[in-house]
Amino acid sequence: MSRVAHTEADVRFMQGMISHHAQAVEMSDLVDNHTSSEAMRKLAQRIQVSQADEIKMMERWLSTRGAEVPAAHAHHAMGATLMPGMLTAEEMARLSAAKGRDFDRLFLEGMIKHHEGALVMVKDLFATRGAGQDSDIFAFASDVDADQRMEIDRMRGMLKEYQQ
Question: 8-69+85-160 — its CATH code?
């Protein structure tokens, strides 16, 4: 079977997802010093490990295809466009300043919003004519969709205990 070529939409998806994942790692990096919940620590560790690994994979994918590999923290640049669901600088500052249960609630709300943004990115990719056909892109985007949905469900369950 012939290999389907990637599209510009595939490249933009991977470039945008690098920054998207990098912010999730940044958010998760805050957990150890801001929570007393072991469940929150485990959630953050899963996010850190999976998304850091996926960033490396996306960088390799782009590099192999001769596409620009953005810096993982390009979303911090002045005037940078945030991908769907990403927290603003003000939201990140509020999260960074919070502690204990307030932090846990803000983290869960923010990460749910963040993951929902990733689902929008996948939906937009697959809605673009010809995009998402490369086997690597299709597999990755499908995994992102499934994983993010599962984590959203888990986080919504965790969030219920902070809304009582």
Answer: 1.20.1260.10
